[in-house]
Write a structure and sequence with these properties.
The protein is of the alpha+beta class and about 375 residues long. It folds into two domains: about 1-120 and about 240-380, Aldehyde oxidase/xanthine dehydrogenase, molybdopterin binding domain (Aldehyde Oxidoreductase, domain 4), CATH 3.30.365; about 125-225, Aldehyde Oxidoreductase, domain 4 (2-Layer Sandwich), CATH 3.30.365. The chain has helices at about 1-10, 40-60, 65-70, 90-95, 100-105, 150-165, 190-210, 215-220, 280-295, 355-365; strands spanning about 75-80, 85, 105-115, 125-135, 140-145, 170-175, 220-230, 245-255, 265-270, 305, 305-310, 325-330. Strand 10 (about 305) and strand 11 (about 305-310) form a beta hairpin. Helix 1 packs parallel to helix 2 (about 40-60) and helix 2 packs parallel to helix 10. The longest helix is centred in the middle third of the chain and has 20 residues, at about 190-210. The chain is globular and about 75 Å long. The termini are far apart.
Length: about 375
């Protein structure tokens, strides 16, 4: 149900559409149960919406780039749930970053995306950290986030050092919820935003103490900090202002094909609010695009009577690293009012527009609309006439 909730909440994409009526329905099946996955319903609805936009542009005689730019969310724009975006919408900036690339390519698909930061929908978002001064040569940051390669522990070090001036080589990060440093789920693109705010709050007293004392004198001290977002609203709540999520990130991706219908390059312009670590930012987006290409082109879990026909990843269409085309990631920084230093989450947004951009590119190549994923290679046939 939560996946469907997220899909419905993003059903108008990063666009201001003043008249919206969305009906969503969850259907029980006897297939395998599914869990949370990068994008969490937004990938699916974005594939549909962005494909429809291209089809609308063709039927109405609109320019595909200009149509998106003209209808993009700006300050005062409204999302699918009725939430007014007061500040921080960077979708137009991402479109501008790829305008020339898109306009100059012979076979190019374009798609935009929006993705929430934080769980939202009336659920409290909370994170807590502890900063322990062990010795003049050792400071420990305790937090409860799962480090699965996305770099949240690196972010923790960077935030602490930025706030206090402590050298990074003496900082150790420990993930241990038994130290009373809970964080909740490492999901919803929420880790960087919440841990940054939590560390900033924890560092206030430490920073003040460092003005008059050394780390040696502060040895044994523990500084706690947390950040809580408890002001989002439940679906259907009778409130003066709907706030589905406290933050969103935005993106535009362009997929360019060569004369043989192969993906030549993927361009990705992503509004991350403030990019704290460029290498981690690019890695997140590149990994997301790789997953998005698999989702668009090859990945399929075939079932027979609710049982997978194969459990081999290759049989399910997982792309190899060597099959990844060239990518170019462009960082856009439109500050978020609630993120530390203006940060927005980027853990999921990289996957959101990819499939639609791929499908729209293939239409430019062979004139076929693809309404179902994956787009099998054998289906792509250019009309030589």
């Amino acid at each position: 149900m939560k996946v469907l909730e997220r899909a419905a909440g993003h059903a108008t994409g990063p666009y201001h559409i003043p008249n919206v009526d969305i009906i969503s329905r969850a259907v029980y099946t006897n297939n395998l149960p599914c869990g949370a996955m990068r994008g969490f319903g937004v990938n699916q609805v974005t594939f549909a919406v962005e494909s429809c936009i291209d089809e609308l542009c063709e039927k109405g005689g609109f320019d595909r780039w200009q149509f998106r730019y003209s209808n993009a969310l700006v300050e005062g724009g409204v999302t699918a749930t009725g939430q007014v975006i007061h500040k921080g919408s960077g979708v137009r900036q991402t479109l501008l970053a790829l305008k020339d690339v898109f306009k100059n390519a012979k076979y190019a698909g374009i798609a935009c995306g929006i993705k929430n930061t934080g769980i939202g929908n009336g659920m409290p978002d909370e994170g807590k950290v502890k900063i322990e001064i062990v010795s003049p040569e050792k400071v420990i940051v305790h937090h409860g986030w799962t480090e699965m390669g996305q770099g949240v522990s690196t972010m923790a070090v960077q935030f602490l050092c930025e706030e206090t001036g402590i050298a990074p080589n003496i900082v150790e990060v420990r993930v241990d919820t038994s130290k009373d440093a809970p964080a909740g789920m490492t999901t919803a693109s929420r880790a960087t935003s919440i841990i940054g705010n939590s560390i900033a709050n924890a560092a206030k007293n430490l920073k003040e103490d460092l003005k008059t004392k050394s780390l040696d004198e502060l040895t044994g001290n523990v500084y706690e900090g947390k950040w809580v977002c408890d002001w989002t609203t439940k679906p259907g709540a009778d409130v003066d202002e709907i706030i589905t999520h406290y933050s969103y990130s935005y993106a535009t991706q362009v997929v360019v094909l060569n004369e043989d219908g192969e993906i030549e390059k993927v361009y990705a312009a992503h509004d991350a609010g403030k990019i704290i670590n460029p290498s981690l930012f690019e890695g997140q987006i590149e990994g997301s695009i790789h997953m998005g290409l698999g989702y668009a082109l090859t990945e399929e879990l075939e079932l027979a009577n609710g049982v997978p026909k194969s459990t081999r990843l290759r049989k399910m269409g997982i792309l190899r690293a060597k099959e990844t085309p060239e990518m170019e990631v462009i960082g856009i920084e439109v500050p978020d009012p609630h993120g530390p230093y203006g940060v927005k989450g980027v853990g999921e947004i990289g996957l959101v527009p990819t499939a639609a951009a791929v499908a729209n590119a293939f239409y430019q190549y062979d004139g076929t609309r693809y309404y179902k994923l994956p787009i099998k290679k054998r289906e792509i046939r250019k009309d030589k006439n």
